[in-house]
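Support request, please re-run this one:
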Amino acid sequence: MMQNMRSLKLKPALFMALFMALFWVRSGYSQETDPDLDAHKAALAAYEKGDFETAFAHWKLLAEKDSPLAQYYMAVLYRDGAGVPQDYVQARSWYERAANGGSVRALHDLAVMYQGGVGVAQNFAAAFPYLELAAARGYAPSQYNLGVLLLEGKGTEADAMLGYVWIYRAATQGLEQALAAQGLVAQTLTLDQLQEARHIVEAGNDSQ
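Re-run finished. Output below.
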């Protein structure tokens, strides 16, 4: 389509700005709620001190009680080989359990595994639905990554306008990568497309 043809002019600069989409989103601790949140404090304290074995022991007990937050961090420990041997199969399994329990960050990290080919064959089509679910729940890193896939036409049909919509949404939440990329992406769109994209954002409508 014409908007995608126009985007070719800015691809080198644009996709340098979008490169960070494949990196894990790291924050000190998940802001997701959990009924056993207080019980996570000992695990978090150990984790932040680098005592990963103790963190693993605490989170394993909670994870086996079906705490999505603990299951998420079990996945992180296995993914990073922190306190346990690195094991991407275990990481993916724990991410899936956490995602099934409602963890939006687990959905995002599963997508990143498929985007980057981390412990799995790279598969953008497999990443896409995880990002859609997390983005729909307002998770800015997933909104941004979803926009990247739409811009590049990876795992889905290329759609520069809809890609901009998701990057715009992430930018309104202050996500640094989205703020950096938003202007570059906007330059690939016509004025009518920009107006339509902003109308979609303001209306809260995910469809074109």
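Residues 1-10 have pLDDT under 50 and may be disordered. The radius of gyration is 18 Å.
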